[in-house]
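Go through the following before class.
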Amino acid sequence: MKAAAYWFKKASYPGINCTMTSTDSRSASRHALGTFLRTRRERLPVPPTASGRRRTPGLRREEVAEACGVSHTWITWLEQGRDVSASPHALARLAEALRLVPAERTYLFELAGKRDPAAPVAGDDDLPPQVLALPDRMTISAYLLDHTWMARAWNADAAALFTGWLDGDHDRNLLRFIFLSPAAQRLIVDWDERARRVVAEFRADVSRRLRDPSMQALIEDLMTRSAVFARLWQEQAVLGREGGERLFDHPRRRYYQSTLLLSSHPDIKLISLTPLAG
């Protein structure tokens, strides 16, 4: 890539070249954040004890600043879209002062490019029956993975395909199956490449739960028991989970894998495998 600017196509119309640098994108996010904060501040009711005549609706900047323990200047600069430092905890106090509903709070942190310290973490046992029933409602192989890549539900087709993992009485963790079970190397045709990719995909998931004890315990276990996993983990590769063709030593052999994330449980993945001809 040339220089330090990273270009991407924002839109494409005949005769119009619309491009935006990463710097432009950050600037647009800051201005969107500023507009959002100002409108949310102006919608708040004025306290009955407030004094002085007001030319604009809602609370004043200094009143919001006092409520969340920050400076008036910091609030002003945020609303003006300036490039100012905003810690997650300061943004959390600001969200509370502005009385943001959950969707608004999520929007605030997304625009600020920060992780909400109070964001709920999906538990291991809080999936409703309707979610757990999803694989059985599909006519192709399908299964649910939680944040530690433990299979939480699967259908009969998936159990027939993934022998040694989803059938019988086996460890339901996909990573342990891939790296610790001889059955995985027999089943997955391009095992070396798939193993490298799933480690990189798992690292992307770990980045969202760096302090999760269950994730750290799984990594330590795999590092101890699988030299291949330990070597691949040290490569520091990161990839998003993508679909595509998958090859198995199975009568149907070729499948197309799709991965869906549940909006209500973003750590849960619904994976399906569609048989392909040939």
